[in-house]
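Budget justification, computational time. The allocation requested in the original proposal was used primarily to generate structure tokens for proteins on the priority list. As evidence of use, we reproduce two of the resulting records. The first is shown immediately below.
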Amino acid sequence: MDPSKFTKKRKLTDKAIPNVLLENPAFAQDSKMYQELLETERRLDWTMTRKRIEVQDALSRTPSTTRTLRIFLGHTVSGQVWQTGGEPSAANFETGEGIPAWQVRIEGRLLEPTNSRHRDKTPSRKFSTLVKRMIVDLERDPNLYTEGNTVEWPRLPGPQNPAMDGFTIRRTGDSPTKMRVLLYLEHFPEQYKVLPELGSILGIKEDSRIGVIQALWNYIKLQGLQDKVDRKLIRADDKLRMLFGGDSFHFQRLPDLVNRFLAQPDPIVLWYTVNPAMAPPERPQAWDVEIKMEDTAMKNRMAAMLQTSKETAQTLHKLDEEIALLAQSLHNSHVKKVFLESFAEDPANFIHTWLESQSRDLESIMGSGPTEGMTVRQEELRRSEFFQLPWVEEAVAIQHGVNLAARGVQT
């Protein structure tokens, strides 16, 4: 097995250019542009990291949006006198044929936002998943019609209530019937009715619990009701003092205080009249209502921002490697230039100094040599600066390690 195949390739990551080149007047303009690019890259990386953290924090809170729910009410009739040519047909009480009857259909669907993109569209939710509870009251004589004049549908969790596009109510009869439809919608986040005592101060009638708390906090900051010393202490003004019954309260009590003035929201009330004596309208009646729900399109877009494609990551990595290689090439070229310039100025002295340096390094690494250190000039050994050179500490550490190893072998 060849170990060289498993040797990890060293990656160059240093993109800095030697200071000598940066300070060279011949490359002043290019060096300045390169430094500005590096600084821009650092600022961009910092901004992207900060935005990524903000998006992750926003995803944890699940964004919401306001959509329009269009509700349709229509009806059909069967077995009516005007349908049978003016003569009543034989009634079959087992199958229901021949008995005058009518049925009402309640449907609904979400309208697409005007500025939505095609790729952001998600499968539309069924109408029954948007309704928490529905009550239909029929204004009929209970003595004459015993089928029940109140129909209630509560949505239960689990498979007991499958998702449906609408509801159908069927009743017998041939007289006009007026009905009231009460719809309790499933908002996200859950909406509450703000009682007038608090709503008149904050200027809101219905909102989520977090929205009401935020509105109250904004009112406190706008009116400057925070204590100057203890910022967690709220000094109530005349309006809040009458509302909460105290001169001051702590910030932690805001949710409890707000809960006192929250109630279940009023239902959506729709009126509809069924007249079996006439032909049903060709088109059903429609109402548009607003509903708060999870913004899945925004959530998907925000999640896509956190995902970097494999091709983009590979391209960026390749560009970084190319820049690092070019920076390393400039460094090597600079070292070679200094080497050749020193050689050209004084070849004999340069060769002598270079050979002494190589010999000294070799003896320091090996711990011995044919000259036993005689290649080092005696003048240098007499100077303290010689023993403060960068390589001295490393040479001493190597020599000390060699001596300890030799002692271990001897013992």
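The second record produced under the same allocation is shown here.
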Amino acid sequence: MLIFSILIYLVSGKLEIYTDGQFQNVNYSLANFGYIPYGRSLSGYILMVKELEERQLDLCNKSNIAKQQELENLWIIGRIGNCSATTKAYVAQQLGAQLLIIISTKQNVSNGMELKNDGMGFRVHIPTIEIGKDDGEQILKNLTEIQDSVLYGVLSFKDSKRVEKPDVVLFMTLNDKGGYKFIREFEQYYKLLEKNARFYISYDIERWDDRISKYNIGNKDCLGGGRYCINQGGEGRLVLEEQLRQHCIWINNQSQWFEYMDYFDKNCFTIKSYGACSGESWIRKQKVIDECVENSYVKDSKKEREQLENVIMDYWVGNKSLSGIVYYPGVLVNGQPYYGNLDSINVFENICSNMLNTTVCTALQQSQDDSPSTGSDINWAMIAFAVVSCILFGLFLFMCYRRRLKIQMQQELGQQVNEMVSQYIKFYETKNEK
């Protein structure tokens, strides 16, 4: 069997592919869904499944495709189109793949995120990458033209730009429940890493360049005279004001920010109620929060407050334009967008993969590895509880049956005694008459 060795490294957005002693650099795009094993490597066999070949490798339905069981570490390759990338990844996952490679219709793909999450990415637990058309067709050619050929690949997610304290930016939006869930789950990892990384937050915003009107527009979706906007059907200004309050809470006390975000998610449901609902939180009532919001505006006595520039919102605008973050909520680690499902443990691993000193990371992973698994204990406990419950219930039924049987026997015995007494009395009376 002829084996080609393909080594792929995540270095400067390139794939280094080694084939039969030769290598080439290939651009790739990493999908924004699935589980990305940051700080680790994947290896596997790239096979072109026969059923996929007959269907032009569209991976849109697994109904007539047999699950591949002959190899433990399987990478599946397919072409883009006919269905979403998340559907293809989910089908590949069900077929037993550890990685999905999608061949683009473009000759070259960028290093950015081209395979987007259509909302169903939560089902996908494997990484997905997209490669250019020519590179993909070359892999298919190697698989089809050379008899019994197998491609073996190694994909490394180890970041080569480790620093003492990586910068981590959490990009938030107020209208996504998944973001609040992530914040709740990520708080424990933040507490572990707060001394080993620099954390920042940023919020969703749009900057409108309207110099013709000199930023004097009274748009209800905007602040700064039309500089800073969020399209919320006339309620964008309320969203921006709440985001300012939340950012000031972060500046004042980051631990309180996590607590406030949990409160806000559970109590503030409509945009119109943001102001009143926020004011009921003791964290928001602190005087320093109002002072922070006011001081964020660039003072100009000739302009109303709604027309002033704002340094915090300028910071959001700059982050959005330079970060490469397309979808909110999101995470930026060391200047690189986080890819994959927004999962707290996966983000933690991504941050750790960018740190020079990973003592805190390895200590946590070691404690998790050393801690006994409670899954089987819980199962045995539930089984024992069910068995004991069944026995007790059986005893209860038996006692009830025994008591009922005893009562029934007493009734029958009493009835028989009464009949015998009646017969005796009748016999005695008959004898006296004679």
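A brief technical remark on that second record: Confidence is low (pLDDT under 50) at residues 1-13, 373-378.
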